[in-house]
Amino acid sequence: MLQRPRRLRFNQHIRDMTREVRVSSKSLILPIFIMEGENIKSPIDSLEGHFYYSPDTVFEAVDDTLKHGVNKFLLFGLPTEKDEIGSQSFDENGVIQKAVRMIKERYRDEVFIITDVCMCEYTSHGHCGILDHGYVDNDKTLEYLTQIALSHAAAGADMVAPSDMMDGRVAAIRQALDKHKFINTLIMSYAVKYSSSFYGPFREAAKSAPSFGDRKSYQMDYHNKQEAIKEALLDMNEGADILMVKPALSYLDIISEVSKQSNLPTAAYSVSGEYAMIKAAAKMNLIDEYGVMCETAVSIFRAGADILISYYAKEIAESINKGDIG
Ligand code: PBG
């Protein structure tokens, strides 16, 4: 027999040497939830192992994460007050603005801070924009999104990540950032964000479920792939620096396509429901949590992602450090 594929699997050395996908903890981003207030560290029921922190305690999470070799964070805010227009989202003393300032003051460039730019955690109705007779008004919302992004950049965010799915928001945000001299503040757009049932635990955690209706008039229909390319290329042309696909696991084909068709780095967001499924099945002793976590993380990179946002970021980094993956 001239061809014996098993020779390349003979022992760990040869397997290690010939891995086709290399994974690094430098490509991982950990989401953190910041709650308005002081001295808060309380568990998030829907995201086991995760906590709410207030701006003054978040350094505990940052320190612990840095120990695992992950230094990139995606921040979500929970304000105390919500209103029709999500005023707290662009307030310079809002929870995220405060947290970013405090983190940056303490860690400077040791950490890379990304902020979620959206309104659903801040609006009384829970939609990702400004309502006009129950419909999210695209162009009106853009004015607010640019203000949110600017306030994050002014607080010191390295990168803003608009997750609202309004048309034209990348261009609007880029223009506003440049006008205010934030030319090196990056934009990672949630370019391809599907209307997904996988966001359930996040909406619990962020208290951001819409109070009526759904998000289908702005987030994408999961039957569509052409549309994903359209969205990705639009954001690329509007000046996005990184394109994100979300969720990840049921959308590996989309990650693959977006990474091939654009010339930007592709990020994948392995969302709350993906994390919760693994946690729940492991609790029932149906799967090995560690093994499934490693396998799914690698599969997302294999599909073409360059960056992974995951609630398992620390644990994935640990598995890389141990040499189990990567
Ligand atoms: C805000 C936002 C959502 C997520 C990230 N940013 C929720 C949503 O669109 O309903 C979900 C993340 C997750 O499920 O982990 N628009």
TrEMBL record:
Name the EC number(s): 4.2.1.24
- Record-listed 5-aminolevulinate 1 binding positions: R203, R215
Q: Which UniProt keywords apply?
A: Heme biosynthesis, Lyase, Magnesium, Metal-binding, Porphyrin biosynthesis, Zinc
Q: Report residues binding Mg(2+).
A: E231
Q: Name one Pfam family in it.
A: ALAD
GO biological process: one example: protoporphyrinogen IX biosynthetic process
Q: Which GO terms describe its cellular component?
A: cytosol
| Record keyword Lyase present | yes
Q: What class of enzyme is it?
A: lyase
Kindly state which reaction or reactions the protein catalyses.
2 5-aminolevulinate = porphobilinogen + 2 H2O + H(+)
Q: Which InterPro entries match?
A: ALAD, ALAD_AS, Aldolase_TIM
Gene3D superfamilies for the chain: Aldolase class I (3.20.20.70)
State the coiled-coil residue ranges. Answer: none
Q: How is the quaternary structure described?
A: Homooctamer.
Entry's family note: Belongs to the ALAD family.
Q: Which NCBIfam families match?
A: PRK09283.1
Would you tell me the protein name for this molecule?
Answer: Delta-aminolevulinic acid dehydratase
* Gene designation: hemB
